[in-house]
Automatic annotation (TrEMBL):
Domain spans labelled MULE transposase: 205-299
PANTHER family: OS01G0519700 PROTEIN, PROTEIN FAR1-RELATED SEQUENCE 5-LIKE
Pfam families, alphabetized: FAR1 (PF03101), MULE (PF10551)
Occurrences of domain FAR1 (ranges): 2-83
Higher taxonomy: Eukaryota, Viridiplantae, Streptophyta, Embryophyta, Tracheophyta
Full protein name: Putative transcription factor FAR family
InterPro entries to which the protein is assigned, alphabetical: FAR1_DNA_bnd_dom, MULE_transposase_dom
Length: 351
């Protein structure tokens, strides 16, 4: 195949989590986003434009009646000249570092041989750089990810060992985790006896927050927090997630409810994440879901920018009024500032 393939549209069922639509396209399909076209304020030189509206695509849809995926769209035409067969192995989706080459580069690294020299050696024994099958950058990336997996596995074991040690001191400590197909740590939830007591006393309203990322691995860190009688933040638990999908949020929310010994929240606040909202509906159906004002205030400046519009938006969102009063004020704001086609404003209204 003489062109590069890119994953595009993916849709999943909110109820079952099954992928219902999947589409693959040519790597040069579409066009560069307009916000990246303004190069006046760029510090670096812009990359060359590569998107040229190539129509080639392959799309499948899941049909429940047949219990199978069916091809619903398939276009083979391209809008540019394809790569020659002898060049196809340099396309991004075709490149890979074989395990044999990775093992060789790893061994040479242990002998203090630089990666660039290891790549040069592979080119020599393959009869030239064109016959290696991957670029030097691919080798650097593969070695880096391989090293990260080794470190991550060691850190995961150390974390679980630490929590096991704390459980000896704190009999009420709760820790639960899940693993992936490779038996590596995926999702981890824990809370201590103090968090259990806090939740029993102040857990009527739960703030489900995943805006933080751990520095080294970029894994989402979820905080389960609330507010006590002194309006101070109270921690109910923590979770490290493998990703931010409906399935993952559902899993960790179930862990949280299991740890709280029957205590269920009467209301949940989130940052507005759609996957998080769906997980709430699955695990605690009927529990009211609201948006966190801190996240709204953080995002309105980024999306509206005009201080006057931001001030009017916040009056609509935060001032005490009736449902009819809110609708009237919202329509007036949209008409006054011409916000009919602003997607973020529409999204906030729908939420």
């Amino acid at each position: 195949m003489s062109f590069d393939v890119r994953k595009d549209d993916k849709r999943t069922s909110a109820r079952t989590g099954r992928v219902t639509i999947r589409k693959w396209v040519c790597s040069v399909e579409g066009e560069r986003l307009e916000k990246y076209m303004d190069n006046n304020n760029n510090v670096r030189m812009p990359k060359k434009l590569t998107r040229c509206h190539c129509p080639c695509l392959f799309k499948v849809r899941y049909f429940k009646e047949k219990n199978s995926y069916v091809v619903v769209d398939f276009k083979t035409d391209h809008s540019y000249d394809l790569a020659q067969p002898q060049e196809s192995h340099f396309l991004r989706s075709h490149r890979s570092v074989p395990n044999s080459h990775l093992a060789l580069a790893t061994s040479m690294r242990r002998l203090s041989i630089k990666t660039c020299h290891a790549y040069q050696y592979m080119a020599d024994i393959s009869g030239g750089f064109a016959n290696v099958g991957f670029k030097m950058k691919d080798l650097y990336n593969k070695l880096d990810s391989s090293q990260r997996e080794i470190v991550l596995e060691g850190d995961a074991k150390a974390t679980l060992a630490y929590l096991e040690g704390k459980a000896v001191e704190d009999k009420k400590l709760f820790c639960k985790y899940s693993t992936d197909e490779s038996n590596r740590l995926a999702n981890l939830f824990w809370r201590d006896s103090t968090s259990l007591l806090n939740c029993c006393c102040f857990g009527d309203v739960l703030v489900f927050d995943s805006t933080y990322k751990t520095n080294h691995y970029g894994k989402p860190l979820v905080l389960f927090v609330g507010s006590n009688n002194h309006l101070l933040t109270t921690i109910f638990g923590f979770a490290l997630l493998v990703d931010e999908t409906v399935e993952t949020y559902t899993c960790v929310l179930q862990m949280f409810l299991e740890s709280m010994e029957g205590k269920k929240p009467l209301g949940i606040l989130t940052d507005g994440d759609e996957a998080m909202r769906k997980a709430n509906e699955l695990v605690v159906p009927g529990c009211p879901h609201r948006l966190c004002t801190w996240h709204i205030s953080k995002n309105d400046q980024k999306n509206l920018r005009n201080p006057e519009i931001v001030a009017e938006f916040r009056r609509c969102m935060f001032d005490e009024t009736t449902p009819c009063g809110f609708e009237q004020r919202w329509r007036a704001m949209v008409e006054k500032y011409g916000l009919h086609n602003r997607n973020w404003v529409k999204m906030m209204y729908d939420k």
